[in-house]
């Protein structure tokens, strides 16, 4: 009997060689994650060690329980404005509860298989709020870059910008020198040493320069937040009350949505870079949920998939989730062994690191590309971007989605085209066309309409008006060609029902070529039975033959419209069916 491997699923085919690759990539990403974790925590309004705790705990849990082989989880720049706003408005303890609640929401989304729904968020909305977040992050670091003192933190973007100008006289030249050294080092390191993480080298070099040449002249992590402890965080469960849940459910939902979007985008990027097995979006959300439920219990802030660190993980040879677990362990070891030394890092050194993060996440090329289209997407993009910067991310996403839905509905409603048609005798198959309908060439008793496009709430009223307004007389038969109606909702069905019921008072309605979905809607509402199964036809020709049988032959006498090939016989008072047989016989003889 063949021995079954202990590795399966995301670890299928795992070997010692695979472990060596994961070890290398895990160490590299872990080293990169340390300064970013502290920087994101500081920018979010909390102590830097909380970012390290998040990197360790969430990083390991997301790799263990997530749906991507290569995902690296932890604190990210996208969360900064949201978390900062919560800390300012409700405090750090409330942030922990909001993160815990967001974890529950994410877990439930994964359990109920809602992962695929996130892909329906329009691209202009995600680009808009991502670019807005980048602007907020960048502007939020100007004060630290310039070394300003006495700056009060506000939730409002404009208020924070105003604080910079109010305190511009406190500018610190030494902070600017430190920040410039870090900025230049971060930019040049990847060009000189591609395998070495630029942010870490930038922090180290600028910290050494500040300590050696102008000690005590710039604010450090230690002087601002106190010394970073090298011990593990204590376990504590946040206080949960009904009032606090009501207060924080909105922020928690925003954290969950943003975390879900970012993590799945990161997983999609990983899929594209590896070309291998695709991620499991629902499992990914469950992993994110578990991580965000447990991390706050140890003082950590909300976490999600980090696109840049995930890409770095893949580029350094990662082959399984072990690399993400190793990355968390590496950060843990650094915390235990070197945490006190992090207290000497200048805040001015953190500023350029976050500014570069903001620049990289801004999606400036995509933003400008969408803006240049000057379409409805441009309006959605601008609205989401401006609301993110000047109001809040919560309002921006809500308004952006609502705006996108309204504009999409308008565009879809314009796709529905209703036109009166008649058969073209010059076409070999006598295809119908709108060009055949004129004042002198139209049947007074039969009206045929082409209906093309989705029949839904956005287009239903226009559909009804189009047909009812053009029928300025009362024909005996109304034939609706609906072969190009792919979808019909209950609103569309109700307007169709109105037409059928109104027309049935003096004539009959025939429908040809209807697709399965609209038919199923009509059957469920009872409109199919009301119309009559005998009035549905697969082909228009069959429906026209049926319609001709319903004509008032007396009205046809002397009619000069000749809308159908049978009209000549009907106008002369002859039997059009016998005339058609005679014509076929003549053609055979010829």
What distinguishing features does this structure have?
590 residues, mainly alpha, 26 helices, elongated, disordered C terminus
Give a short synopsis of this structure.
The protein has about 600 residues and is mainly α. It has 26 helices and eight strands. The strands form two sheets. A six-stranded mixed sheet has the order 4-3-5-6-7-8. A two-stranded antiparallel sheet has the order 1-2.
Describe the structure.
The protein has 590 residues and is mainly alpha-helical. The model is unreliable at 1-6 and 582-590 (pLDDT under 50). It has a six-stranded mixed β-sheet. The chain is elongated, with a radius of gyration of 34 Å. 61% of the residues lie in helices and 6% in strands. It has helices at 16-43, 48-65, 80-90, 92-111, 123-140, 142-146, 157-166, 173-192, 198-213, 221-225, 242-274, 281-294, 307-315, 322-342, 347-361, 364-372, 376-390, 393-413, 460-470, 490-503, 516-525, 527-531, 540-549, 553-556, 567-571, 576-589, and strands at residues 73-74, 304-305, 417-423, 432-433, 446-452, 477-484, 508-512, 536-537.
Please outline the helices and strands.
Blueprint: H1 16-43, H2 48-65, E1 73-74, H3 80-90, H4 92-111, H5 123-140, H6 142-146, H7 157-166, H8 173-192, H9 198-213, H10 221-225, H11 242-274, H12 281-294, E2 304-305, H13 307-315, H14 322-342, H15 347-361, H16 364-372, H17 376-390, H18 393-413, E3 417-423, E4 432-433, E5 446-452, H19 460-470, E6 477-484, H20 490-503, E7 508-512, H21 516-525, H22 527-531, E8 536-537, H23 540-549, H24 553-556, H25 567-571, H26 576-589
Parallel strand pairs: 5-6, 6-7, 7-8
Antiparallel strand pairs: 1-2, 3-4, 3-5
Helix pairs in contact: 1-2, 1-9, 1-13, 1-14, 1-15, 2-12, 2-14, 3-4, 4-11, 4-12, 5-15, 5-16, 5-17, 5-18, 8-9, 8-15, 11-12, 11-13, 16-17, 17-18, 19-20
